[in-house]
């Protein structure tokens, strides 16, 4: 696995809607830019070899970094794969939609739910939004949120950007009625 | 009977003071570059930028207003909270080799408002001292819509003419600056550009426009 670059983004929101957020809301993302393991191979029918070569190592690299950047208990999480223009969206999905990738993060966060994800193909410097949901109950509405990310010169056409996102809380000033009240 | 207004409790951190001065968000980005030109770097280059998004304290005041009082109140706090984040992101002040700064004012503000928060000693001296530098801080500033990307210039914190340290870091600002806001940025890195090889002042030969002569028939 060739990692070209790792970007870490930390958001501390101290005010929202004109009111203080105390303690500040904390949302982080760690993105690794790697060489597409199927680069230059044309249409590869069976992606298993590339997945085995990369997915687990990538999860192991990113999970401790995102937990360290968060620096506190995690309550919501999500992930992203942005594939460079020469690759398939399926290549990004192959890397992030496997237990051998996601379980590193789930275990580190003591989480149980599926990680919500964004997958797309894009030019370097594309803006993408990572969805985050609650780490043990994906129906908890207060924790549905997204984080906007842009990495200046990634992914190159033959690269894939893979990211993990974590939040210490739900949305700042969240005040929607829970799902159960609408049943 | 009129209710007595309770004064807020005393701040316990610079972040809290900054929030009271209108800061709504602090964003820190760190890029760790491990490979360049297809090769793995012996030592990854790490760059970091810290951004404070705050309410423009001078909205609607016009060009006659005195920018001094708000600058003296706000700029040192910004210098402190942003420098602290750079030191943490790069693993200690001893690792920081280059630095720079920037400010973007929203569409309802004056360019001078952005300048006020970064171009005085109330910001610059704080950043310089906390990052243990002596150089003038290089900078970028401007007025922009939210969702903009800004390249923040950096140079060596004690040897501003060190050519191999000339570099920039791109910062994306998702929903800022709104029309009534200002983004203030401090940035730093822990080394020169990857594979620097364009010489330095000490190796340059004297160059004048004479070299243009003879290029055209």
UniProtKB/TrEMBL annotation, chain A:
Alphabetical list of SUPFAM superfamilies matching this protein: BB2672-like (SSF160519)
Gene3D superfamilies xrefs: BB2672
Pfam families named in the record: AA_synth
Protein name listed in UniProt: Amino acid synthesis family protein
Upper classification of the organism: Bacteria, Bacillati, Actinomycetota, Actinomycetes, Micrococcales
TrEMBL record, chain B:
Family matches, as Gene3D superfamilies: BB2672
Pfam families per the UniProt record, alphabetical: AA_synth (PF06684)
SUPFAM superfamilies: BB2672-like
Name of this protein: Amino acid synthesis family protein
């Amino acid at each position: 696995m060739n990692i070209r670059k790792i970007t870490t983004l930390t958001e501390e929101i101290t005010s929202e809607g004109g009111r203080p957020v105390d303690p500040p809301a904390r949302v982080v993302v760690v993105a690794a830019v790697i060489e597409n393991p199927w680069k230059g191979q044309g249409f590869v029918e069976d992606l298993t070899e590339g997945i085995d070569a990369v997915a687990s190592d990538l999860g192991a690299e990113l999970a401790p970094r995102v937990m360290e950047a968060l620096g506190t208990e995690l309550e919501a999480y999500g992930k992203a794969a942005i594939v460079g223009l020469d690759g398939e969206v399926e290549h990004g999905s192959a890397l992030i939609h496997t237990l051998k990738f996601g379980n590193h993060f789930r275990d580190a966060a003591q989480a149980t739910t599926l990680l919500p994800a964004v997958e797309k193909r894009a030019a370097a410097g594309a803006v993408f939004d990572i969805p985050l949901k609650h780490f043990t109950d994906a129906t908890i509405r207060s924790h549905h949120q997204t984080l906007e990310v842009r990495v200046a010169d990634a992914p190159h056409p033959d690269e894939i950007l893979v990211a993990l996102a974590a939040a210490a809380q739900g949305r700042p000033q969240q005040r929607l009625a829970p799902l159960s009240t609408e049943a | 009977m009129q209710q007595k207004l309770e004064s807020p409790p005393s701040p316990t951190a610079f972040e809290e003071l900054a929030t009271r001065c209108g800061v709504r968000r602090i964003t820190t980005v760190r890029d760790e570059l491990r490979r360049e030109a297809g090769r793995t770097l012996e030592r990854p280059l790490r760059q970091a930028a810290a951004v404070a998004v705050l309410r423009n304290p001078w909205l609607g005041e016009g060009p006659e207003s005195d920018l001094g009082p708000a600058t003296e109140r706000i700029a040192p706090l910004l210098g402190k909270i942003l420098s602290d984040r750079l030191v943490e992101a790069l693993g200690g002040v001893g690792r920081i080799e280059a630095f720079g700064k920037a400010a973007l004012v929203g569409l309802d503000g004056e360019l001078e408002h952005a300048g006020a928060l970064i171009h005085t000693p109330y910001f610059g001296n704080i950043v310089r001292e906390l990052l243990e530098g002596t150089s003038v801080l290089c900078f970028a500033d401007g007025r922009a819509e939210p969702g903009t990307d800004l390249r923040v210039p950096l140079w060596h914190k004690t040897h501003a003419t060190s050519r191999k340290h000339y570099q920039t870091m791109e910062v994306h600002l998702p929903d800022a600056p709104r029309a009534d806001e200002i983004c203030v940025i401090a940035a730093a890195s822990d080394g020169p550009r990857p594979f620097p090889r364009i010489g330095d002042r000490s190796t340059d030969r004297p160059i004048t426009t004479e070299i243009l002569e003879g290029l055209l028939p």
